[in-house]
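S.,

Sequence below, as promised.
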Amino acid sequence: MKGYIKVCGVSELEEKKGFRYFISETQDIAVFKVEGRIYATDNVCPHNHTPKIHLGFIEDKHVLCPVHFFKFSLQSGFQGNQSSASGCTLPVYKVKIIEDEVWVEKPEENTFNFDF
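The prediction came back faster than expected:
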């Protein structure tokens, strides 16, 4: 499927538990199953730049970064309960389910540059 990468099987995901998938040596994404729906985000927290979003805590349809507990919507990536992008925004990716396979929209390039 053009523009998408297969990351795992739906049956491999556990409810409210993150799954880490490496796209390349320098980029990975986090995949979550919440209330039966699959979400995909960048794995790097935009607040502290740590690749640990997959270890985050799920609260409703939000993930809380396990380092400083910044809360991001799994649907929009917006911080907290905001309806627009202000402050840190976690990149989110489209997900398609084909049979039992989870396909995620492939990011074009690294979303965060660690060279600062």
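The CA atoms of residues 39 and 79 lie 16 Å apart.

Coffee later?
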